[in-house]
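Could you help me review a protein record that somebody else here produced? What it holds is a sequence and that sequence's fold in token form. I need someone to confirm that the token line plausibly describes how this chain folds. Take the sequence as given and treat only the tokens as open to question. This is what I was given:
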Amino acid sequence: MKMKRLIIISIGCILLFSGCLGIQDNYDYKPSNISNQVNMNAWDFIKSRPDVFSQLIDVVRTSGMDSTLYYSNSEKYTYLLLNNEAISSLTTIIGTVKVSN
């Protein structure tokens, strides 16, 4: 009985993993023609896209966080900017968490 179950699981795994083989042709990097140069500081970019970052702007202003952190033009930084959907999801998750002492 164990051998039969092992054979069935093995065949299932082979079929499952072989179905994913045709998804990607190769692993060679193909660069795009899109430039990542924004030519403005991060805070100006955030403010230029209120359709995407309006909640992030509200969070930065409400929290009292220093928005000059986003003004650097001389240094190169990578920013993780949460869009409106991410902040909405985060507030939903935080609202459902129960904290007990």
In short: The mean pLDDT is 78. The chain has four helices and no strands.
